[in-house]
Design a protein that fits this description.
The chain is α/β, with parallel strands linked by helices. 39% of the residues lie in helices and 20% in strands. The protein is globular, with a radius of gyration of 17 Å. Bound molecules: zinc ion (ZN).
Length: 148
């Protein structure tokens, strides 16, 4: 097979080689909030996941799964699992999330609880999927930290 990074052979070659692999390690479920995009992209790069994960971006991340109205998200998980052989889900809620009405009392713990419940739901449907929970904390000045 052609070297997928041999740009001398043209962009088409690279795309085809890349598409033939067709597996990815992970699915990331994060909030759609556009303000988090640059930070999430950097985090994915640091984790070596950029180009190796399906991305599901919905308001509140775990919210719909946790509230039992996540059929759309379950469908994305199922496609990723079957089509891309994904075997790790990264749940990524963030504090001060508008989908939850902004900062909740005991905000960080609430999000940890929501992600823990979502992890159990996933484990009951997909026991062979590893779940990683990452909380993005957004400070009063917009400073971001990662709790893994
Ligand atoms: Zn949000």
């Amino acid at each position: 097979m052609a070297d997928p990074f041999d740009f001398a052979q043209g962009r088409g070659c690279w795309l085809i080689a890349n598409f033939m692999a067709h597996n990815c390690s992970s699915l990331v479920l994060h909030c759609m909030d556009f303000r988090l995009q640059p930070a999430i992209r950097r985090w994915l790069e640091q984790q070596n996941l950029l180009g190796d994960c399906d991305v599901v971006s919905v308001a509140g991340a775990c919210k719909d799964l946790d509230e039992g109205v996540g059929d759309f998200i379950w469908k994305q998980i199922d496609i990723s699992y079957r089509l891309h052989n994904m075997r790790q889900i990264i749940l990524m809620n963030h504090t001060d999330c508008g989908a939850y009405g902004g900062r909740m009392p005991d905000d960080e713990n609430k999000h940890q609880e929501i992600m823990a419940r979502t992890e159990k739901l996933i484990a009951s449907k997909y026991p062979d999927i590893k779940v990683k929970k990452v909380l993005v904390t957004v400070g009063e000045q917009g400073e971001i930290e990662w709790q893994e």
